[in-house]
Amino acid sequence: FVMRYLLLLILIFSFVHTEAQQQSQSRFRIGIEYGSYKMAGKINDQWEFRQVKIRYATQEDQAGSEHVKGEGEVRYAGLKSELSVWENRLTLTSGLRYSRVNEQISPSRGAPLYLFHSSGQGIELFRVRGMNESIGYVGVPFEADFLLWGRLSNWQGYVKAGIQAGMKMHGKTTIDFASKEMEKYGDEIIAAAGKAPSNFFLNTYGGLGVRLILNSGVRLSIEALFPQNVLTKDNFSLLTSESYGGAQLSVSLPLNLFSTK
Questions:
Q1: Residues paired with residue 130 on neighbouring β-strands, in sequence order
Q2: pLDDT, tens digit (0-9, with 9 covering 90-100), for 69-114
Q3: CB-CB contact of 23 with 258 (8 Å)
């Protein structure tokens, strides 16, 4: 997917390179971006697991979700528009961004897990290999970056802050049962947990970036992202919303909408 995405970028910007050379002084630009970051992997409280007891294990007590690990990653791509103001010290950005969230819960050791499920008949145990969740969001980000150095140079450093609002477009949560015969209970167990992913989200974020401005006016940027702050609740079913930092790449082209010619 990443290689196809990069090849598409090369074709697009090769096509518009000649036009961009004539518009290098424009304050208005359009661009594309791609980024990703890791989720912290804290499992939501509604899921309770027990590890199958392993012979010769150094720890006798195999109860509790401490024997379960959570992993998650968010990848996103988007189209954006940029406007530079205050003699190019400040850049304002907005656009449209698609984010794909993938989460997994799996045993910290190789043995399967027992998943606890409360039903009208009491507590039921299901032997599982793990759980998976995939969610797609479409959001509208609003960002501002401020130059730290390099206003008159082709190399620039900046700090960025942003806020993003959006909605869920699709999502699926599944349980990987050890026995295929138990798959018919998957939807019931997930529904009983009572926390489907929210349809809306709002988050804030920031980062530090380095930008190279080519003679044509094309901007190439790479950013180190700080952990995001999710303001809405119940955005994911399996893991909590905490995240680690990440990275973003972007390319933007100048337009002559503000030309004085």
A1: 176
A2: 899 999 999 999 999 999 999 999 999 999 999 999 998 877 778 8
A3: no
